[in-house]
Design a protein that fits this description.
The protein has 437 residues and is of the alpha/beta class. 50% of the residues lie in helices and 12% in strands. A four-stranded parallel sheet has the order 2-1-3-4, with helices on both faces. The chain has a four-stranded parallel sheet with strand order 6-5-9-10, with helices on both faces. The protein has a two-stranded antiparallel sheet with strand order 7-8. α6 links the parallel β3 and β4. It is globular. Pfam families: HGD-D.
Length: 437
């Protein structure tokens, strides 16, 4: 297959500017929350943020991973932050997001200008080995109260009432914690609204990713990174849920009109885990071969919530109220909310790499993938766990697969020239040639 001249129409995403604006607004709101008498909390992109949302409409969060990924784009500031964390005594092989966040906190510098904003409390989930230690250090340094929710109850396919109760009971404890930490009364109506918004956001993101099954793909992964990120910021917010609905309509329209993300699409790839954020141009390099990355389990399911559809395909999980289940009280909301999050595909492979291999092979089949690029990401132990077992499973299924070493947040671990050479060799294996500019 030789990469051909443009064979599909393309056009920029109309909602691109709005996505950028919403992201910028989120970080500014966090920085300025105190001027308006609001509340600030810090935790992970996987924190169940509908709980703090029950404290009021002036509650703002700083989710650590997307913040650190944003810093990683600024190679100079990222290195400054990691140097500060290492000077404090933290090892270089720890999560690079965690080191970037810690370094900025110790330097008292915020990526979006001014001093590093101090949270009023920490509210955090625990599934990855770094998560609780990350915010334990934050709480100790900033001298703020902290709460940790253990969601490590095993794969969703083995779910029992006892396991679900274990997480739901902790969420009830979390409600007590946020009331005490903020001095505010918890509002069940606001909480239920936030739970519904989160379900809308995460199901809809999965629906959007499912639209990429068609040829040509309406979205490419580099673009998708700037879109799914809104769910990692505040998935329980009205603005996020509404944006995802709007985006779904636009991408559906692109599919109907045959609008391609990569006009010369000739080969479809899939990646895995976070990319090296300071070298996203690698995706544009792929396009010179007519290659489009249709996404990855990471992009689809870090925040997307999925289910098996009646026709056997993978799509966005059906919303409870569409199945006649009403959410009118705190206990129902808490239990459904716990169940919703525990079904998250990206949590499943923490227990067994075979679960991840099955999901990756499913994406390869349903999204018509020709080859797989695995990032051996030293910056994230959680999402890289079992990756070589995944590689073996993909190769065994007869799918061409390449690996490259790197780090999502620490550019010192990434060799651009070597990676480009590996991509060239892989493209040759797929029978692709670079297109003349």
């Amino acid at each position: 297959m030789n990469a051909m001249a443009n064979k599909y129409p393309t056009e920029p995403l109309k909602l691109w500017g709005k996505a950028k604006q919403l992201r910028e607004q989120y970080y500014q709101n966090y920085a300025r929350a105190k001027e308006k008498g609001g509340i600030r909390w810090s935790g992970s992109a996987w924190a169940l943020d509908a709980i703090p949302a029950g404290l009021g409409e002036d509650v703002y969060s700083l989710t650590g991973e997307p913040y650190a990924a944003a810093v990683a784009h600024d190679r100079k500031f990222a290195k400054e932050c990691m140097d500060a964390a290492e000077a404090y005594g933290f090892a270089r092989d720890l999560c690079s997001y965690m080191r970037i966040y810690w370094g900025g906190m110790h330097l008292n510098k915020y990526a979006f200008g001014g001093e590093f904003p101090k949270p009023d409390f920490v509210f955090q989930t625990q599934i990855c080995c770094s998560h609780s230690k990350w915010y334990q250090h934050v709480a100790k340094e900033e001298k703020v109260p902290e709460f940790y929710l253990d969601v490590g109850v095993g794969p969703y396919r083995d779910m029992t009432d006892a396991r679900l109760d274990y997480v739901a009971n902790q969420l009830h404890d979390g409600i007590e914690f946020v009331e005490k930490a903020s001095g505010r009364k918890f509002d069940d109506e606001l909480f239920i609204k936030a739970v519904k918004n989160e379900m809308r956001s995460t199901s809809r993101w999965a629906d959007i990713c499912a639209l990429n099954k068609v040829k040509p793909a309406p979205l490419d992964e580099k673009t998708m990174y700037s879109l799914y990120v809104l769910c990692t910021l505040q998935k329980s917010s009205q603005w996020c849920a509404d944006f995802m609905d709007e985006l779904y309509e636009e991408v559906k329209d692109r599919v109907a009109r045959g609008i391609a993300a990569v006009p010369n699409e000739s080969v479809r790839l899939m990646t895995d885990t976070q990319p090296p954020w300071s070298f996203l141009k690698i995706f544009r390099y792929l396009e010179t071969y007519g290659a489009v990355s249709i996404g990855s389990l990471y992009t689809f399911a870090l925040e997307g919530i999925w289910e098996d559809k009646p026709d056997g395909s993978w799509g966005g999980r059906t919303l409870p109220w569409e199945k006649g289940i009403e959410i009118n009280d705190r206990a129902t909301a808490v239990r459904l909310y716990a169940d919703w999050n525990l079904s998250k595909p990206q949590w499943q492979h923490f227990y067994d790499p075979r679960i991840k291999s099955e999901m990756m092979l499913r994406i390869i089949r349903e999204w018509q993938v020709d080859g797989v690029m695995l990032h051996l990401n030293r910056g994230c132990e959680g999402l890289s766990i079992g990756i070589m077992e995944n590689r073996l499973a993909i190769a065994k299924a007869g799918i061409p697969v390449m690996t490259f070493e790197g780090n999502m947040g620490d550019e010192r671990e990434f060799d651009e020239v070597r990676t480009q050479a590996r991509v060239d060799a892989f493209m040759e294996q797929l029978g692709m040639r670079r297109q003349a500019a």
